[in-house]
Write a structure and sequence with these properties.
Distance between the termini: 45 Å
Number of strands: 0
Strand content: under 5%
Order of helices and strands: HHH
Number of domains: 1
Oligomer: single chain
Length: about 80
Amino acid sequence: MQRAHQNTLENYAPVAAMAIVNGLTFPITTAASLVAWSVGRVLYIRGYSSGHPEKRSLGGAISHLADLPLFVMCFVSAHKMLK
C-alpha cells in the first residue's frame, strides 16, 4: 500500500502542473479529467493493497487514460496562449 501511495505522489506533480496550465483554457475538460484521474488512483490503490497487485491494472489504466488528454491539452493550451 505504501508503494501505491508513493506512485500516486510521483504522478501527482505533473498532473497538477498540467491541470494549472489547462485550467486556464479548458476548465471543464480539465476538471473532468482530474475527476477521472482521481477515481483511477483510488481504484489503483485499492487494487494494489488487496494483496493481488494485478488488480491495480484497471485503476492504472483509468488514471493514465485521464492524464493523456491533460498532456495533449497542454500543447493546445500553449499554442493558444502563444498566439
